[in-house]
Amino acid sequence: MRCYGRAAMRCLYVDLDGTLLGPDASLVTGADGRFSLLGARALEACARADVEVVIYSGRKQSSVFEAARLIGTSAYIFELGCGLILDGELEWLTDGLEPSAEAGTIYDQIEASGAPAVLLEHFAGRLEPHTPWSALRDVSHLFRGDVGLAEAAAVLEAAGLSWLRLVDNGVIPEARPLGIMPGLEIVRAYHLIPAGSSKARAVARHMQARGYPRSDCIAAGDSREDIETADVVGTFWLMANALHRDPKLEGEIGGRSGVRLASEGYGAGVYEAVVTTLAERRG
After folding, report:
1. Which fold has domain 11-93+198-282?
2. In this structure, are residues 163 and 192 in contact, taking their beta carbons and an 8 Å threshold?
3. Distance between the two ends of the chain, CA-based, in angstroms?
4. Which one, of 73, 89, 92, lies nearest residue 13 by Cα?
5. Nearest by Cα to 11 from 68, 74, 75, 54
6. More confident residue, 177 or 160
7. What is the DSSP letter of 274?
8. 149 — pLDDT class (breaks 50, 70, 90)
9. pLDDT exceeds cutoff 80 at 4
10. With 0-12 CB in 10 A as exposed, 13-18 as middle and 19+ as buried, what is 140?
11. How far apart are CA 166 and CA 124, in angstroms?
12. Is the pLDDT of residue 2 over 50?
């Protein structure tokens, strides 16, 4: 899905879970749980308009690789912007941290710093590993719970670990039905990553490599971390289901430049973002 030459839109950066993928991480399931092809039609609209599609996700590299291969794209961003694959080449965006034979993976290096243990101890009962998805990752330590990010940052700084940050990657909707952390009113997914890593940084790096102007790129997502891409793309589209899960997001996007709220959720919201952008620019 590469773009060759001038187009009304050059690139769509799209999150997977809670955005392109419907409930239960299905490309062909809509917000109501019924079969829907609108997510796939959004990808088709991009292909017809020569718009590149780049997945940006909190998932580990192997998982995003399979999703990217499935939709036929040659670039993708994994683990909240810690890594960028561009035409088969891997670039780490982790503040100089890289895997090595001596130190192990970046995940291993973060583990060795003691930071995960510090957070789990401080937030006991409010934070725990997000099993089974927390296993076999390259960079980020994945947790679930409900904690304050400012408090987490203060805990890390006090421990001499300010080179790391805890990131809110959205509400986990299946937590309550499955009885996960029943003592919490809401359960979120959190990633512990290098402080300079972010989806926005990875998106900006991809745009730089491709030579895409900001005005010709849009992003779609459903979390606070996704919203930060509004600082680097022309328009960020927040999926309607994001507000259903976390109504507080509405106050955070109010008046923010470059953010639009889709009237639909999941794949239908991505389809809305794509066709609306293409129609407005051609008009």
Report:
1. Rossmann fold (3.40.50)
2. no
3. 23
4. 73
5. 54
6. 160
7. H
8. very high
9. no
10. buried
11. 15
12. no
- So where are the chain's domains? 11-93+198-282, 106-194
| One-letter amino acid of 250 | E
User: 114-117: long-range contacts at Cβ-Cβ below 8 A with a sequence spacing of 24 or more?
Assistant: 114/159, 114/161, 115/141, 115/156, 115/159, 115/161, 115/164, 115/192, 116/141, 116/192
Q: How far apart are CA 222 and CA 245, in angstroms?
A: 9
Q: For the segment 99-134, what is each residue's pLDDT rounded down to a tens digit? A: 999 999 999 999 999 999 999 999 999 999 999 999
DSSP state letter for 215: G
The per-residue pLDDT for 250 is: 87
Cis, peptide link before residue 132, omega less than 30° from 0: yes
- SS3 string, 63-101, reads HHHHHHHHHCCCEEEEHHHCEEEECCEEEECCCCCCCEC
Q: Are the C-beta atoms of 16 and 66 separated by less than 8 Å?
A: no
Q: Are 187 and 144 in contact (CB under 8 A)?
A: yes
The confidence score (pLDDT) of residue 283 equals: 62
What's the pTM value of the predicted model, to 2 decimals? 0.93
6 pLDDT above the threshold of 60:
no
CA within 13 Å, CB half, 93: 23
